[in-house]
Each structure stands twice: as C-alpha cells, then as structure tokens.
Amino acid sequence: MSTEATTAAAGAPLVSLRNVSKRFANGTLALQGMSLDIGEHDFISFLGPSGCGKSTALRLIAGLTRISSGDMHWGGAAAGNSKNGKTDRDLGFVFQEPTLMPWAKVFDNVWLPLKLAGTGRDAAAPVVKQALEMVGLSRFADVYPRELSGGMKMRVSIARALVTHPRLLLMDEPFAALDEMTRIKLNNDLLAIWREHRFSVVFVTHSVYESVYLSNRIVVMAARPGRVIDEIRIDEPYPRGEDFRTSTRYNAHCTAVSQSLHGALHGVDIDH
Known about the structure:
Largest sheet: 6 strands, mixed
Mean pLDDT: 89
Radius of gyration: 19 Å
CATH architecture of the domain at 15-95 and 170-265: 3-Layer(aba) Sandwich
Shape: globular
Order of helices and strands: EEEHEEEHHHEHEHEEHH
Number of strands: 10
Structural class: alpha/beta
Oligomer: single chain
Strand content: 15-25%
CATH class of the domain at 15-95 and 170-265: Alpha Beta
Helix content: 25-40%
C-alpha cells in the first residue's frame, strides 16, 4: 500500500476564499459567505444539489466572473492584485462538454492555449506531444474531433487544460455525460496524472461515488444561496483502484457523504 499522504502538504494555501458571495445582475444570490482553502496537490470535489453554486464557485476561482463581496487570495495575495504571483498559465479549466474546435485537428486543439499566449506551433510541439502522451492520445494528433469517441474528446480537453502545466486544474462535471466504464477509466487516468504531476484539482460532480473515489477532501454545498455546510476528508491512500472501490471503507465513506448531502438537500448545516 502506498504511503503517499492523502492531504495537501502543510503551508500556505494555493488559493483561499474568504466569505465570498456572488449576486448576479438579475438579483439571484448564487453564493453566500463561502470560505475555502485549496492546498498544494489537493484533490477537492464540490458536491451539492443542482443550482447550489458549484459551477459558479469554479468560475469565480477561474476569474471568469467577479466576486460580489468577500476576498479571494492566490498564494497569499489578493486576487486582482497584479503582484499576486498568479498568471493565466496557473489555471486549467475542463468544462462539462469538451468544447473542441471541430475544424481543427487534435494537435491544434491542444496547442490553442499556447498559441493564444504567443507560442508558435513548432515551439509548442514538444509540450503538446507530452500533453497528449499524458492522456494516452499520442497516436491521434492528426485526427479531427468528429473521429473520436466521447471519452477521447474529453481526453483532448484535459490535455488542452494541462498543456500549460497549471498549478490548479478546475473541472466542471467533465465525465457526467460518459458511460460508466469510460468514466471509471478516466477517473483512474486522471488520478494517475494528478499524482505524477502534482497539481491541485477542484472537481465538480453530482456523484457521491466519484467524489469519494477521487478526492482527499469533499466540500458539500447547501442549496441556493450556495455555501459550504460540510467538509469531509477521505483519509485513504493513493493509488486507488478496484480494491478500494469494493472495500467496506469505501462504502462507509460513501454512506457518510450521502448523509451529509441529504442534509444539504434539506438545508441542514453539519456540525462535526
């Protein structure tokens, strides 16, 4: 059994949210008073009812939408401060849909973030090839997205998010539309990449089972306005595989998380 720790190394968080709220222009209060620390090499899942603000929180972290109140800090400095040490390449984002350019081959889809940053095709080639190797698609660089299965398209999307070697990978229900066997395979492959390259992950899912399998921490969110009502640590070693999936420990973790989620559905704050 691996002795690898299931929690992030001690030290300053990679990202901190303090009492963050988000109100949209139409008056909808999507998030209220959300506080969270994301550590180096954390794997955190957001779990909660539909409409509880999981995806909104992800977009706030990514800087795709503005915080209405509260503070977000990156590496100890306020987000939005030009001296906070964060660059666009510190973040990778994988959406629920692969969002690939259908007219471009796989190589060019993965190259896109580097291209936008001013890196030419030839200069980017070694890094793009490495990203494709990470997701097991080395042989598909010259293929168009229409020739790929749903799981392979998602692998391309993951490679594109990882091509800049981000410190934090944000994933918004990336495997929700896939069949169960493909989903399990991508869960395993994602964990292998995460363990090797040691970035942090924030992963949105509706699946209790997926969250327990992947995460070292699960953040359970209440219905709108979204807020953290529970944080559950999954103190199990990596790598995880079928032995863990079929263990009584896994079942016990899933039961505990399901009970917490039930409380979220009924607006009950959890007090451990």
